[in-house]
Amino acid sequence: MKVRTAYEKGDRVRFLSHLDVARVIQIAVNRAGWPVEMSQGFSPRPKLSFYAPLPAGTAGMEEYFDADLRSPRGLSGLAKGLSESLPNGFCLREVKGLPDKEGSLESKIAASIYAVDLLGVEPRALSQALRRFLDEETVTFDVVRPNETKKVDVRHFLLEVGEVRDLGEGRTAVDMMVKHEEGRTARPQWILSSLRAFGLELDPREAIIDRRKIIFGK
Q1: Cβ within 8 Å of residue 30, ≥6 positions away
Q2: Buried-most residue among 1, 103, 160, 204 (CB within 10 A)?
């Protein structure tokens, strides 16, 4: 039996990394008594699949994981047990059954919608920088990792930008739709960092970023 679970990674746990979130979910699933199948080999692991991981510092209102279960269980019982086992900051949205031959969710994800909240950034300056960014065919950002630096065309991944909003008290907000392509995407933090080339000085680490929704393709 396969089940797909939708859950929220809330504000209180936004600074957990993807690996931390996976560990929390695994512990909660164990406490809830889900009969999760284990992989084969010398280091068996529970068959839990997580999709479109969020970086530390980003909350997610609509996140997903799949689980392979050894035996059929009632969905309401699975949901009740997991809801009671999740720690503060996480909220269960839905548990639904899947066909046994259901493929990976990753290939079906078309885009993510993010809400970005910035402190100390003028709405007009943000609008102008985003307009200049969108006018370009290519905007390259260097993603620095421990063993390599990889160039990513972040313009390719930014599909849409919403209206820039003045929230008052020095805060400015904007929504972004960012494309997923064969498991690859761009973090909103990379896009924000790239705006420096278009005259906007900001520290993306100070941005409050929430993923509001995951968009699925056909």
Answers
A1: 36, 46
A2: 204
Query: Which tokens is 142 given?
Result: 């260097």
CB 149 within 8 A of CB 81: no
Residue type, 74: G
Per-residue pLDDT tens over the stretch 13-57: 999 999 999 999 999 999 999 999 998 888 889 999 999 999 999
Q: How far apart are CA 211 and CA 26, in angstroms?
A: 22
What class, spelled out in words, does domain 2-104 have in CATH? alpha beta
What single string gives the DSSP state of each residue in 187-205?
Answer: -HHHHHHHGGGGT----GG
Give the residue among 14, 3, 4 at the shortest CA–CA distance from 117. Answer: 14
CB-CB contact of 87 with 143 (8 Å) = no
Provide the whole-model pTM: 0.92
Helices 18-31, 75-85: axis angle to 10 degrees equals 120
CA distances from 22 to 19, 75, 214 (A): 5, 21, 18
Q: Where are the domains of the chain?
A: 2-104, 109-216
Contact 75/92 with Cβ under 8 angstroms? no
Radius of gyration (C-alpha) of the chain in whole angstroms: 19
Q: Hey, is 8 helix, strand or coil? A: strand
- The CATH fold of domain 109-216: Alpha-Beta Plaits (3.30.70)
Selection from 91, 110, 60 nearest residue 213 by Cα: 60
From the number of C-beta atoms within 10 Å of its C-beta (0-12, 13-18, 19+), residue 111 rates as buried
